[in-house]
Amino acid sequence: MTKEVLLIEDDKQMQELIVEYLKDYKLNCTAFENPKEAIESLEKKSYSIVILDLMLPHMDGFDVLKKIKSTKDIPIIISSARGDIGNKIAGFELGADDYLAKPYEPRELVLRIEHILKNRVSNQLQIGDFLIDCDNRSVLLDDFSIEFTKIEFEIFLFLIQNLNKVSSREQILHATSLDENTKNRTIDMHISNIRHKIGDDSKEPTYIKSVWGIGYKFVG
Fold first, then answer.
1. Distance between CA atoms of 162 and 32, rounded to whole angstroms?
2. Could you tell me the residue range of the domain that residue 206 belongs to?
3. Is residue 137 part of a domain?
4. CA 148 to CA 107: how far, in whole Å?
5. What order do you get walking across the sheet with 215-218 strand by strand?
6. Is 213 inside any structural domain?
7. Which residues of the chain have pLDDT under 70?
8. Measured between alpha carbons, how far is 220 from 36 in angstroms, rounded to an integer?
9. Does residue 135 form part of some domain?
């Protein structure tokens, strides 16, 4: 499956070079010059990794790094001409996973990306049509990102981890951060929202089936 890479780089020539080079390694790279637009994209789309320049318009790269790390558990490789030891230390202290000082060969960038993603693969689940990233609480259905709320993700993950097993509403409740006094109809409402987001017809469901009098099961 193609991995999604977010590139934040204001050098157009560098952008084009990286985007084109990564294609050969099944890495689909989306590039932004404006870091604020990149952060907005990160909130809407599921990415596997971020390549971040430090010298950017509108916002310093270290501020971008802090902003991303405050909301997303996503690996970040700094790609910068600021290659002195002070900047490298600052980058790692703020949570960068790697640091590449420009200039460098694009192949080295690919190797760094592959190494980082290989070490994180254990936190991803591929079940049927779905790719679930447990760290980032993200779900891809046929490469399309599904935007779940926190509770919806918890319910979805519980059901899919108990594939083909019937789960009662009480079991679903205790597997999530919902209040213990939550009514059954609230669980049903969340299930309905999940079905809608994954395109599942409640009358003829493909994924989440209702088990009358008990609860639900995810089939696959």
1. 39
2. 148-218
3. no
4. 35
5. 167-168, 215-218, 208-211
6. yes
7. 1, 121-123
8. 39
9. no
CB atoms near residue 80 (< 10 Å): 20
Kindly write down the DSSP assignment for every residue of the chain, as one continuous string. Answer: -PEEEEEE---HHHHHHHHHHHHTTTEEEEEESSHHHHHHHHHHS--SEEEE-SS-SSS-HHHHHHHHHHH----EEEEES--SHHHHHHHHHTT-SEEEESS--HHHHHHHHHHHHHHHGGGEEEETTEEEETTTTEEEETTEEE---HHHHHHHHHHHHTTTS-EEHHHHHHTSSS-TT--HHHHHHHHHHHHHHTT--SSS-SSEEEETTTEEEE--
Instruction: Copy the structure tokens of residue 3.
Output: 């991995």
The predicted-structure confidence for 25-77, as pLDDT tens digits, reads as follows 999 999 999 999 999 998 888 888 999 999 999 899 999 999 998 888 789 99
What is the torsion angle, in degrees rounded to the nearest 10, for the CA atoms of residue 63, residue 71, residue 197 and residue 153?
160
Q: Are residues 107 and 161 in the same domain?
A: no
